[in-house]
Amino acid sequence: MVTTERMTMFPFSTRAERLIGQEMFKVMDRAQALEREGRTIYHLELGNPRIAPPREIIDATMEAIRAGQLGYAPMAGIRELRDAVGDRIARRTGRRIDGGSVVISPANLLISQFLDLTCNSGDRVVLFTPAFPSYWAAAAHSGLTVTAIPLSQENGFHLDEARIEAAVAACPKAIIVNSANNPTGAVYTQSMLRLLVRRCEDAGIWLLSDETYADLSFGRTFFSLASCESPQLVVMSSFSKVLSIPGYRVGYALAHPAVAEKFALSTSTLISCLPIFSQLGCVAGLSVFDQYAERVRAQYRRVTSLCAEWINRSSAVRCATPESGFYLFIDIRATGLDDVAFCKRLLEERHTAVTPGRSFGVGCDSHVRIATCGSEDDVMEGTRRIVELAGELGGYRVKAA
């Protein structure tokens, strides 16, 4: 909360006062402060993969640095990477994709860029909740009105026709959809996603499809909206999660060439460009993408499923069975605490960091999110501590396996 005294001392702009950031980074800051005091903390608050990335990425990055590739890059990204991304999408969808329809930018920035390019202050954007915190933060910073369409825990947080119709009926300027989903792990059906595209096109609504976790779908067939051609559709993804390189900050968007050009101008305005060496690293990563993704997907499926089984053996907490990614969205209502109180006690007493559910939208304060992409030992120990604290608070025991 901003105090009157602080506002007087620092007359920030309206946009500055709308900055809310991401709660998981605030949790991480507190966790790291405890670590500086000598505590051992189990980090489950951020989707920060600890699996080593493909060696090809590191080698190509270092080779580019040694070769002096330290200058500016084109604002839309280097052509080698744009073409490689376009070729990969074309192989998966059967569409003819030109690299000119692809723009390279950090995935988190792409969210803000999309809203900045498609919406004016005061416009409405629809989010299907629970929704990734950056959507909320970007919408707030842009001065947008958010209409939340809650998805049901009872059907695994899946998108359905009624919620699509509710989203369109809200008359938004834009809708954001996220399959495979963070934080729920739900993978939406092809029929519902195609319906969403048709309804948005009919109503003249911009649509952003965030497909960051597409290649971490466990068994359910993933349908990419890159298969659809619609002038007001933007499909975005990131190399951070599936290639285990979040520090590279490299993502991409696929859009109509005229829209891609606006994204490139936005990138030039805000950050000029991305480093050449990190982009060349991603080009190398794409050459081994499928083999590497298969390996990490199997690892995440195994660990995430083990954690879900452990959680669901406790009658004090529960979660939906994940279909993708490395997150679990845990219902903590039986503990008698809301998300913030539970997270605080878990961190201070059990030295385990997780993200409060309210970060993902109104009505989500009965949940917390955990990330299962850390070291397996830490993830399992952190999950054990969650179940232990929840059981003590709720007075329940873990059921026998």
UniProtKB/TrEMBL annotation:
Give the UniProt keywords, A-Z: Aminotransferase, Pyridoxal phosphate, Transferase
SUPFAM superfamilies reported in the protein's UniProt record: PLP-dependent transferases
Q: Does the keyword Transferase apply?
A: yes
Out of the domains of life, which is the source? Bacteria
Query: Pfam families attached here?
Result: Aminotran_1_2
Single biological process term from Gene Ontology: amino acid metabolic process
State if Transferase is listed as a keyword.
yes
Q: Look up the EC number in the record and give it.
A: 2.6.1.-
The broad enzyme category this protein falls into is transferase
Query: From the UniProt record, which GO molecular function terms apply?
Result: pyridoxal phosphate binding; transaminase activity
Coiled-coil residue windows: none
Task: Indicate the segments forming the Aminotransferase class I/classII large domain, all copies.
Answer: 44-385
Query: Which Gene3D superfamilies does this one have?
Result: Type I PLP-dependent aspartate aminotransferase-like (Major domain) (3.40.640.10)
Q: Which cofactor does it need?
A: pyridoxal 5'-phosphate
Q: Which family does it belong to?
A: Belongs to the class-I pyridoxal-phosphate-dependent aminotransferase family.
Identification of the protein by name = Aminotransferase
Q: Which organism is it from?
A: Candidatus Nitrospira nitrificans
